[in-house]
Amino acid sequence: MALDLKFGFKKPKVKVKQESLAMYNLCYRRAVSIGRAEYVRTEGRVALEESYRTDMLNFLVYLAYSDGVLSDDEIMYINEFFKMPYTAKDLSKYADRWDLKTEKIKERPPISLEPFVRSNVGPETGEISNQYYDLIMLYVTTFNYVGNDFISCNDEVTANEVAALSGYIMMLRENIDIIQGKIMSFMPTIEFKSGSKVKQEVVKYGYDDAEYSEPTYDEIQDLVSTDRERLDEKPHNFFFNSNRDVYTHNMPEASGTLDADITPSQEAESKDENKFIGNITEAEEAVSLEEMLSELNDLIGMLSVKKEVNNLVNLLKICKIRQEKGLEIPPTNNHLVFLGNPGTGKTTVARILAKIYHCLGVLSKGQLVEVDRSGLVAGYMGQTGIKVMEVVEKAKGGILFIDEAYALSTGQEGDFGKEAIDVLNKAMEDFRDDLIVIVAGYHDEMQDFLDANPGLRSRFNRTIEFPNYSASELITIMQNRAAKLDYAITDEAVEHIEEYFNEVLEYPPENFGNARSARNYLDNAINNQANRLVNMSDFSDDELTIISLADVEGLTLS
Q1: What is the pLDDT of residue 38?
Q2: Spatial separation of the C-alpha atoms in residues 459 and 448, rounded to whole Å
Q3: ∠ CA 211-216-221 to the nearest 5 degrees?
Q4: What are the strands, taking DSSP E only, across 474-541?
Q5: Taking burial as the number of CB atoms within 10 A of a residue's CB, which of 45, 102, 369, 505 is the most buried?
Q6: Neighbour-count burial for 421-459, b at 16+ CB within 10 Å, e otherwise
Q7: 454 phi and psi, to 5 degrees?
Q8: Long-range contacts for 486-492 (Cβ within 8 Å, ≥24 apart)?
Q9: Element (H, E) at 10
Q10: pTM exceeds 0.70 for this model
Q11: Phi/psi at 7 (nearest 5 deg)?
C-alpha cells in the first residue's frame, strides 16, 4: 500500500459509506442550526455541534469494544470518518477515560439528544431528498445507519456487536420518551412559516443570518463535499473543562500530527461519491425503515418482542451491507414462529415486519396475507395442495401469516391438514428468496405443529414469544381507543377497571383475548353509557364523552 504523505500512515482500505457521511453531516447541520439557541439557553455550557460530534465518536468507540477487541479496520473507519490519525493507544486511553468499554455508556444518554428532542417542534429542513422529516427521526436514524456501517467494516460481525447496536438504539428511544415526558411547554428554537422552509430565529438571538442561512435544494446536492470541507477547516480537539463545567468536545488528541487544512482526498472524490450526490436512495430507505421501526416501538408493551425484532432487523441490515461489500453472508432463515395468546399483537407485528422486510429489500412487495386452517385445507382429496399454492401465490413478495397454525396438525386420521403442511413446507423452500411464512399460536400446541413434518423445525429456527398484557397496558389500550372515539374514562372508573383487571389476570379465563378483550370491555362500557344517557331527561354535551364508574361496574373481561 502507498503511504499517505499527510498522515504518515498507510491509506485505509476501509471505506466509510457515503450515505453514512451524508446522514451524519445532515445531522451536524441541524446541530449547527439549533445549537446557537442552546448555547444561549445554557449560558455557553453546550456547544451542540461539538457535543454531537463527541457523542458519535463515543458511540463508535463503544461499538468497537463491544466484542472485546478494537480491530485495525475499526481504527481505520474512525480515522476516515473523523479525519483524525488516532492510534489504538489513543482510542484505548480515551475509552478508559470515559468508560466506553462497558455497558455504562447506556446509563448516560448523549449530551446532544435532549436539544434535538426539545427543538423537534415541526417539519425539519434536513432533507435527504425533497421530503421533510423530524429531528428525532433524523437523529436516531443517523446513529442506527452509521452504527450498521461501522460494525460491518471488517470481515466479521459478531452477535455482541449487533446486540450492542440494538441496545444503544433502544436506549436512545427510551430516553426520547423520558425527555418528551418532562417537557410540558418550551420555547422552540426554530420558528416556522406556512408553506416555506424553516427559518432560524437568528435575529432573536442576535446572530448573523448570512453565516448560517438554510441551504437550497440545489445546495444540498453538494452536501457530502461541502460539509466535509467545512468540518475540516479547523481541528476538533476540544476537551471537557471541569473548572468551567463546560461540555464542548472531549475527543482525544491524536498522538500524531494533523494538518489543519486537510481536504477530501482524491479517493473520497471517487466516482462512487459523484454517483451518490443528488441520488441518496439508500439514505431515503433508511428513513423509511426508521418510520417502520418507530411504528413498531410505539406499540404498547411488548418490550421483549420489540427487542427480538430490532435484533432481527439489525442482522438483516448487516447482511445487506456485507453483500454490497462483496463479503460472505451468514446463513439466515427469515421464517418465524410467533407464540402467544390471542390479542397479544402477533398480527400487528407481522404486518409491520412485512413493511420492514420490504424496506430492507428482502421482500419485493411487503404485503401481508393472513389465513387460518380454513384458508388452506379443502374438503376433498387433491384440492388442498391447489388451495395452499393459491394462497402462496398471493403471498409471494410478502409474508404469509398463518394464525392458529397448530390446527393443521390436530385433525383426525385422513384429515388433509398434514397435506397442507407438506405442500407449505416445500413452498417455503422453493420460494425462500421472496416469501416469508410466519406461523402463530399457543405455545404448547405449536410444538405439535412443528413436529408434524421433519423439515418444519429447520425452516422455523427463530421464535418470538408474545407475553400477555399487564393491567396497566390493557387500560392504556382502552384509553387510546376511547380517545380516538371521542370518549374519556374518568379516574374513578380507571381505578375500578385496574383493580378488576389485576384480579382477572391472576387466573385469566380460557377465552381471554388480551387487547381484544380490552376493546370488547370498552365497547360494552360505551353501550352502558348510551343506555344510561337515554334514560336521563337531560344531559350535557360533555356527558356524551364521559365513561363513568357506573358504566363499567359489573362488566366482565373475557
Answers
A1: 58
A2: 15
A3: 110
A4: 488-489
A5: 369
A6: bbbbbbbbeebeeebbbbbbbeeeebeebbebbeebeeb
A7: -60, -25
A8: 486/545, 487/526, 487/545, 487/546, 487/547, 488/545, 488/546, 488/547, 489/525, 489/547, 489/552, 490/546, 490/547, 490/548, 490/549, 492/548, 492/549
A9: strand 9-10
A10: no
A11: -90, -25
Residue 413, sorted as left (phi over 0), alpha (psi -120 to 50) or beta, turns out to be beta
| 164, amino acid identity | A
Q: Which residue has the higher pLDDT, 379 or 414?
A: 379
- Per-residue model confidence (pLDDT) at position 13: 61
Give dist(CA 535, CA 51) in Å, integer: 63
Contact 322, 448 (CB under 8 A): no
Q: Distance between the two ends of the chain, CA-based, in angstroms?
A: 70
Q: Which of 539, 558, 74 is nearest to 550 (CA)?
A: 539
**For residue 205, which amino acid is it?**
Y
**CA separation for the pair 91, 83 (Å, rounded):** 14
Distance CA 151, CA 64 (A): 7
Residue range 328-342: mean pLDDT, rounded: 85
Neighbours of 273 (CB within 10 A): 17
How far is the C-alpha of 169 from the C-alpha of 306, rounded, in Å?
A: 12
Query: Parallel, antiparallel, or unpaired for β 436-441 and 463-466?
Result: unpaired
Give Dmax (Cα) for the chain: 92
Please report which helix (H) or strand (E) contains residue 338, including its range: strand 336-340
438 by DSSP, 3-state: which?
Answer: strand
Residues 513-544, buried b or exposed e (16+ Cβ, 10 A)? bbbbbbbbbbebbeebbeeeeeeeeeeeeeee
CA distances from 500 to 257, 289, 475, 497 (A): 69, 39, 11, 5
Which of the 8 DSSP states describes residue 405? G
Q: How far apart are CA 277 and CA 264, in angstroms?
A: 15
- Residue 463 host element (H or E): strand 463-466
**How far apart are the C-alpha atoms of 7 and 85, rounded to whole Å?**
7
